[in-house]
Amino acid sequence: MNNLSIFDTHCHLADKEYQQQSRTIREIIQAAATVGVKCILNVGYDKSSNQKIIEQLKEFANLQLKLAKKYNLPVLLHIREAFADAYEMVKESGIKKGILHCFTGNWEIAEKFINLGFYVSFAGNITYKTAKWQERWKEVIEKIPLERIVVETDAPYLTPEPFRGQINYPQHIIHTLTKIAEIKKMDIKVVAEKIYLNTLRVLGINLPK
Question: What is the pTM (predicted TM-score) of this model?
Fold first, then answer.
């Protein structure tokens, strides 16, 4: 039996009741580990935030990384305008397993994280014809090994074409998978099956026999 919990403390909240949130994170993760529930920590570092709290954001992210390392948990990295800093933080933490959430970086940064043991996640916005990162995504998806790709909905946001502008639902993930298959010039069934297995592997869920 697999029990999975995603513990999410958004980086934008790091400046609110910081000490209390720090204690809460520790308590929840410790309790979850005690009863055998697997967690994935959403670690955020967003340098587009209020400049007054950047250092606090960094401190908060480092706290989460230390806890993830202590309890051997994968992390979900929420990064905005801070890929270089986030890479150094993760590398220093020694964490070898995680996901780059809703990736918007280039191939150079993707490769660095892959070499640390990370997976790269893409959402419905890769289907947008007017997306400013369209060419960047295409290069990354072309170069990245299929074994290191996962997908997400980011629901209710980032609804893929042809439903853009509507509320996002899990069943829309097929359009994100289709776009990846198109870019990689691979059969959609092969892509979907491989990414499914990647997801189980990174989350520590038993692979089907």
Answer: 0.89
